[in-house]
Amino acid sequence: MSGVIVLLPVFLFFAAILGIAVAVQKKAKKQDFINEYFIGGRRLGGFVLAMTLVATYSSVSSFSGGPGLAWQIGFGWVYYASIQVVTMFLVLGVLGKKIAIVGRKINAVTVIDIIRFRYGSEALANLSALITVVFFAATITAQFIGGANLFAAAAGISYGKGLALFALVVAASTAIGGFRGVAITDTLCALVMLLGIGVLTAALLNSGGGIEKIMEKISRQPELLEPTGGGKLPVPFLISQWLLCGFCTMGLPQSLVRNLGYRDSKSLHRAMIYGTVVIGAMMIGMHLIGVLARAVITEIPAGKTTDAIIPELIVHILPPALAGIAIIGPIAASMSTVSSLLIASSSAIIKDIWLSIRIRKHPYSASPAKTDAGSMLITFTIGLVCFAAALKPPSLIVWINLFSFGGLQSAFFWTFILGLFWKKANAPGAFLGMAGGAAVYCVCMVFKFTPGGMHQIVPGIVSSLVFFAAGSLAGKPPSKQVMDVFFP
What we know:
The chain has 21 helices and no strands. With about 500 residues, the chain is mainly alpha-helical. The chain is globular.
């Protein structure tokens, strides 16, 4: 009976998500499908823009995997997570306005449209789409694993049943609603995440006897209070992780595409403020909960990893009705990330590969009806493929997320930064930088190469810059048409 009570708020939340998706899709049918489905018709206001960006960035690892590691390592992991507070200013403040201006000039629907126009290379655009889909699939799979584990722990159902239910709802709602549906449901998800954090914090403080008693218990293990976690977070690794989850977030396509969807400059400026406040509350708040949970949960459940700490905490300190509300937070985080990545993956296949090839060969053959159906079908299919991959889950979803972050950043960081701000950037440089950076990063990950104790993102980003600069200096300069658009 308690499992039913826990799941009731979750089912109501799922019903709301699906209802929003259907309502938005009906409206989209009356307008330009491609612009509406993939970027929301460029009509997002400041609050919705901030919430969809926060919800996209705040995945299940921010609510489960990351806090679990904070429980294990201590406040050092909170210091590491705090760098993520600046991501809204970086993505929106540094790149937001220029991406929006260029996007409107060339009617870009995806960030790969911008890459295609800036570098004039279909091969580069296709490589971008391929890399996007591969690394997005890894992240989506991690979200499915996290969502299923939450169901299994909180409601007492099997992992397989939880996975099937979660995957079906998120894939269906995303396929139906498109970008604007995702943006609106992301806003709902972000608000629910904040509610979940508040409920869990209050219950944790009550269960632990107040902050003084909790800190007294934690201080008995001094390494939990150290910035390096008693040596578990060496300084070089910590700094390189700040690079991965801070500065280089400007290379994440799933975040940058939000810059194509906002309404005006006022919306952008408001989103920077709203987003920074909310993501600060989420990232710092949830990781602090992870550390403070050490006073309530003293051991990792048998046969499980630190990913199970937050679900176990919810079950341990909350009555079923409140547990159902609290568990919506991490489920919403997972759903919002999956939905955003599914739309980005679908756009990479439909808009950036299939539709581009189709229009070049047969300018009038890509009918709106085929595009509508194909977009929804591809979105749903990608969800099913990731569902299949999640049936036999690996452990520690936070590392799967960080692996995908690093791969995308190694490929796209300099492609966007130098493409937008360096006049000599060209197709050979971008192709070498993207392919070389991603390859070096993956090789370093496979062989666990950590130069000087730093994360593999460092050799990935550095090699990408070297390849990019060499190719650009050796190749031909961009055309006057490109220069007039990007550097008027």
